[in-house]
Amino acid sequence: MAKKAVITGITGQDGYYLANFLLNKGYEVYGMHRRSSLDIEERIADLRGKIKLVHGDVTDTSSLVNILQKVNPDEFYNLAAQSFVPDSWTQLESTAEITGLGVLKCLEAIRLTNRDIKFYQASSSEMFGNTPESPQNENSPFLPRSPYGFSKVFGYHATINYRESFGIHASNGILFNHESSKRGKQFVTRKISHSVAEIKTGKQDYSLGLGNLNAKRDWGYALDYVEAMWMMLQQEKPGDFVIGTGETHSVREFAEEAFGVAGITVKWEKKGVDERGYDATTGREIVSVDSRLFRPAEIDLLCADPRKARENIGWEPKTDFKGLVKIMVEHDIENLKGKTGG
After folding, report:
1. Residue 126 sits in the same domain as residue 200
2. Domain extent for 160
3. I want to staple 221 with a disulfide (CB 3.0 to 4.6 A). Which of 91, 186, 262, 319 is the partner?
4. Per-residue pLDDT tens over the stretch 116-133
5. H or E segment and range at residue 339
6. Which CATH number does the domain housing residue 258 bear?
7. Are 76 and 106 in contact (CB under 8 A)?
8. Is the pTM of this model over 0.90?
């Protein structure tokens, strides 16, 4: 009999890739989403007919209990969150309700229905914030710098408490930044890849506005990271695992690499605090710094130490930084060409 899995956050990047991954493993996949006037199936169009969509809400314990009673899954992956960090400053309560308290309600639904359901919580490197330790591992202190970050800390500790108090197979995946062509365009990596594609194809005649060019992150490929989620739930004992590449690159480097994939070399010029990037061949401005895009509380550096995951569950990233950027930029260029027949 096929295993059954419930995935919250099914319409997001990770939900999409995890659903495909589990389908290829022979799972029966249930994607949970809130009732909406929008046709959410359009966002996961190529999963239509392959997964079963169920209505539910991580902020409503009764709806979660109903789903678990009807589906009786083997595994539950909680990927639901208000996941755009800048918006967490303007959506404080909803971020805390969904990203934080929602985890507790998922765990409580499992406790009330079937404690044999294995639970995965999507924790985040944003929990580390400006921790003095680098790279960050499972024992590094949390010093979150945003409502998103401290809401994730709440969910992280809720997962540990339900594991230790009620014997639930509950694991935290502390995932560092992971990107793909399915990433929303509000996120800096996809904003860069899409803008580069538009500039390359002549569809954008203004420069790419970015915030802190010097912020450094540990960027990996989302398809690699969903495999780590699954691997955690296949272990005899649950645990908490940092998932990342162990390398950092700045926003500036990401932009340079993305333009390079498109055959454009960036030349940087700085006048006071104002920095701009120009096409080294044409002299055209292609990058500008917009102070409005800086976070209220910035995180300068996040870098993973994924040794525990490598040694205990056998996970390692398959895609390097250059490969990730190439995947994203080439997808966006081909997508734009396809829309115009070019």
Report:
1. no
2. 4-180+219-246+303-318
3. 319
4. 999 999 999 999 998 999
5. helix 321-340
6. 3.90.25.10
7. yes
8. yes
